[in-house]
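quick one before i forget lol
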Amino acid sequence: FMAEYMNMITVSALATTLFLGGWHAIFPFNLIPGADAGYLGIVWFLVKMLVLLFGFVWLRGTLPRLRYDQFMRFGWKWLIPISLVWIVLIAALRVNRGVLLGALGVVVVVLLVATFFTKGEEEDPPAAPEDFDAFAGGYPVPPQGDEVLPELAQVVPSQPPRTGQPTPDRDYQRDPDDTYEGGRS
C-alpha cells in the first residue's frame, strides 16, 4: 500500500507542476500581488497536490475495480486514437487556423443534419432468452441481464411416500392426525 500511495503522491506532484501551474496561486488569488511569494508558493503547491490526492482516493473508493486487460483495451481503443486526433487537430490549427475552423464547421453541420434528418431504423425484436445453466463453469452463478433460469424439473419419488409425509399433490399443511416419532402430535 505504501508504494501505491507514494505513486499517487508522485503523480499528483507531477500533475500539479506540469498542468496546474506548480507553485503559482490559482485564478482569483493570482491577481493579488505577492499571493505566491515566499512560503506561500509551497502552500499553493501542497493545496493543489492535496486536491488531486483527494480526487485519486475518492475515485478509488467509489469506482469499481477494473482488470488490467480492461484498462489496456480502453487505452488502445479510445485514449490513443483520441490523442492522435487531438495532436493532428492542434497541429492543423497552428498551421492554418481559418481553413481548419471552416472544415470543422462543415463537419459539425453535416453531423447535425445526419443526426436530425435520418429515419430511425427499426430494431430487430429481442431474441428469445436462452436457458441459463447456473453450473456451466462449475460454480453456481446468478443469471445476469436477460438470462433466465430454466424451469425446475418436478421430482418424482422412486417409492411411494410414507403415511404422514407430504406428497406433490398434497398441501404442505400439517394434518392434525399425523403423529411424529416422539409420540407427540
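fyi The chain has a mean pLDDT of 78.
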